[in-house]
């Protein structure tokens, strides 16, 4: 019974933890502008994140080493440092976006300007990073984040023309009022949002934090293989809500308050309240994950002691670096930059940096010195290499498309 | 080493192409340059309209609806700035730009009223006076939408 | 960088056949994690210090082969990435004699806090973390 409960908990938190501000905003923007015609990207992204999250979890469980330690050992200091620089920058951007997301959700709840909520969000995130146990932190934010299921419920309550939605999803085409360049730009953004690299650093470091052993791998595989696809369905429901209500009304999403409109229309104030709760939990959870990830990557590259299983005093550099990252994120927000804009850029930059994260994982997962007999099998390698190719194409196409489309304008 | 000059040539060619594309973008208030800002404002006013509708039917809270109106006001402001930055060459362009700016400012006025009405509607729409106020604001938003739409159709933006 | 003139030995002896475990310094030492006796991460192997002749120095016949005298850490990493050589006084050394084992990680036989290599950690602990309430609580 207890074991079953553990399995259920793991899957539920994986669903709740899948969606962050990047998924939320990008899916809503895409739904309001392209209908369901980009739903296939979410599918491609979910399969990819399942593949690589599993791989990095296996590396962590078998070798007891987190991803970034191994990246430097295998790539050497130069490539490792370049990788660290890019990953760290994107992490800071994502931390900024998530803290902005918490503040925007609180504004939606209270009507008080989001900028006033930012210091509060910062303090709350830091306190949890400082004091709360890893497993409690993961489970609570994951479970509460599950209230984002309200998007799926809202989609049903809106009684859409399911046939038309499915038609858009299964025979995708570029809508008449949008250009092909913009379509592909958002395809890349959506891919970056689904495959966010911090997820992998966090996943593998989390496995070390929770001291996974090889026997825990079956459970983790189940969490990933059930949780992430269901989280992906949630993403598609977000796009669906926007496609059903906002697209026909001629509204294209530029703010979080617009994302809430279809849910309020479908389920009234109660649904709105559940939505806000879900957004706060999801962005809060992701803010924790990205803050920890930036600490993890730095500590693992330089060999510092790290981890929430240690007292902060036993991991001083790790904790100081996370405080600095949080303050940097808040400093960016204090300039008054739109958090939604930061989010949109963060997912595209994530897409650009994807090969940096995923190539080393693939290399290490094939290294018998770390993995013993648990190296990748042939099927996983074929899938991995195929994905690496997709990732590389997306990464190379991102910047030219960004320039050509004026960042999707 | 034979690779690097070729690589440099490719990069240079790319840069030239990009520069050409950027230079090709007209900075005059043609229908093309106005398209982006006009669509942004059209989307904003419709979103605010939906928020007011939802508030009238008590589907959303005063806080969420007024936040939406406030966000839309920000979008209209940035679109207005964008149009201001365009420099008109001919009389025709100047007229078009001024018409667009006039439409934007009536949208902006309607949004301001909407935001105020929404944030003071916290007693709930059962309050008769609040409801009447919201309907007035809704009328204003619709009128501004129509003004913008007819202008966009006339100028061939869409 | 200008190419240094190599000093050619008159006659090359075959390398002595090694007994026991063979380590490739590049592969098995550089960039590896260093753990202390309690398994607490200390730092990474940023570079290695060898005994023996300086570059460009004539090597007399029968000289003892160079030995690892210390693992280096700290700013020396920058020189591996960007080139150059730090002054010897600026190197942070972990003497080879405290190394207890070399596996996928390098383990030491002493505590981290007793070493120069952990001064940043100790400084931040005493001046920052210890001053924030809850810093030394069990998580």
TrEMBL record, chain B:
<feature type="compositionally biased region" description="Polar residues">
    <location>
        <begin position="118"/>
        <end position="138"/>
    </location>
</feature>
<feature type="region of interest" description="Disordered">
    <location>
        <begin position="117"/>
        <end position="140"/>
    </location>
</feature>
<keyword id="KW-0449">Lipoprotein</keyword>
<protein>
    <submittedName>
        <fullName>Outer membrane murein-binding lipoprotein Lpp</fullName>
    </submittedName>
</protein>
<keyword id="KW-0732">Signal</keyword>
<feature type="signal peptide">
    <location>
        <begin position="1"/>
        <end position="23"/>
    </location>
</feature>
């Amino acid at each position: 019974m207890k074991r079953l409960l553990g399995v259920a908990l793991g899957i539920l938190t994986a669903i709740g933890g899948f969606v962050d501000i990047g998924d939320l905003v990008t899916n809503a923007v895409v739904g309001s502008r392209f209908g369901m015609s980009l739903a296939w990207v979410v599918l491609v992204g979910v399969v990819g994140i399942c593949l690589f999250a599993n791989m990095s979890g296996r590396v962590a469980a078998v070798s007891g080493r987190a991803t970034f330690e191994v990246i430097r050992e295998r790539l050497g200091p130069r490539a490792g440092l370049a990788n660290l620089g890019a990953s760290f920058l994107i992490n800071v951007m994502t931390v900024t976006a998530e803290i902005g997301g918490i503040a925007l959700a609180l504004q939606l709840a209270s009507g008080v300007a989001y900028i006033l909520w930012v210091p509060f969000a910062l303090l709350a995130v830091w306190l949890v990073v400082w004091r709360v146990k890893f497993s409690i932190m993961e489970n609570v934010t994951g479970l509460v984040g599950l209230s984002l299921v309200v998007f799926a419920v809202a989609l049903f309550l809106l009684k859409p023309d399911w046939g038309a939605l499915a038609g858009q999803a299964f025979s995708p085409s570029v809508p008449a009022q949008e250009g092909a360049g913009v379509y592909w730009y958002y395809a890349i953004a959506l891919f970056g949002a689904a495959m966010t690299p911090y997820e992998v650093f966090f996943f593998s470091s989390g496995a070390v934090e929770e001291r996974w052993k090889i026997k825990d791998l079956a459970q983790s595989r189940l969490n990933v293989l059930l949780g992430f696809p269901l989280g992906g369905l949630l993403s598609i429901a977000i796009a669906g809500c926007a496609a059903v209500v906002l697209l026909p009304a001629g509204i294209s999403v530029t703010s979080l308050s617009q994302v809430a409109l279809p849910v309020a229309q479908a389920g009234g104030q109660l649904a709105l309240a559940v939505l806000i709760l879900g957004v706060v939990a999801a962005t809060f959870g992701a803010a924790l994950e990205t803050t920890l990830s930036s600490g993890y990557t730095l500590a693992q590259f330089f060999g510092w002691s790290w981890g929430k299983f240690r007292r902060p005093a036993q991991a001083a550099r790790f904790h100081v670096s996370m405080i600095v990252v949080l303050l940097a994120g808040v400093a960016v927000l204090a300039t008054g930059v739109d958090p939604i804009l930061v989010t949109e850029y963060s997912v595209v930059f994530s897409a650009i940096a994807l090969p940096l994260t995923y190539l080393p994982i693939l290399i290490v997962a094939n290294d018998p010195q770390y993995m013993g007999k648990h190296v990748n099998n042939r099927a996983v390698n074929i899938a991995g290499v195929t994905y690496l190719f997709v990732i590389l194409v997306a990464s190379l196409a991102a910047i030219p498309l960004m320039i050509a489309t004026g960042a999707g304008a | 080493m034979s690779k690097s000059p070729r690589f440099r040539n490719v990069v240079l060619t790319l840069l030239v192409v990009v520069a050409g594309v950027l230079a090709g973008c007209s900075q005059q208030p043609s229908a093309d340059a106005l398209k982006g800002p006009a669509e942004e404002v059209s989307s904003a006013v419709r979103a605010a309209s939906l928020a007011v509708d939802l508030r009238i039917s008590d589907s959303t809270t005063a806080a969420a609806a007024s936040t939406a109106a406030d966000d839309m006001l920000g979008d209209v402001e940035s679109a207005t700035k964008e149009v201001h930055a365009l420099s008109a060459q001919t009389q025709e362009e100047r007229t078009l730009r001024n018409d667009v700016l006039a439409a934007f400012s009536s949208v902006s006025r309607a949004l301001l009223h909407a935001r105020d009405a929404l944030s003071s509607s916290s007693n709930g729409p059962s309050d008769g006076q609040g409801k009447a106020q919201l309907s007035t604001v809704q009328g204003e938003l619709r009128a501004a939408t129509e003004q913008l739409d007819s202008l966009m159709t006339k100028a061939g933006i869409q | 960088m200008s190419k240094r003139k190599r000093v050619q030995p008159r006659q090359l002896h075959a390398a002595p056949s090694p007994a026991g475990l063979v380590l490739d310094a590049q592969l098995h030492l550089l960039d590896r994690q260093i753990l202390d006796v309690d398994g607490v991460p200390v730092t990474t192997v940023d570079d290695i210090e060898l005994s023996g002749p300086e570059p460009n120095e004539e090597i007399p016949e029968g000289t003892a082969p160079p030995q690892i005298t210390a693992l280096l850490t700290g700013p020396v990493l920058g020189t591996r990435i960007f080139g150059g050589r730090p002054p010897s006084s600026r190197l942070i050394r972990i003497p080879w004699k405290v190394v207890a084992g070399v596996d996928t990680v390098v383990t030491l036989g002493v505590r981290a806090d007793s070493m120069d290599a952990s001064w940043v950690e100790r400084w931040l602990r005493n001046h920052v973390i210890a001053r924030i309430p809850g810093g030394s609580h069990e998580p």
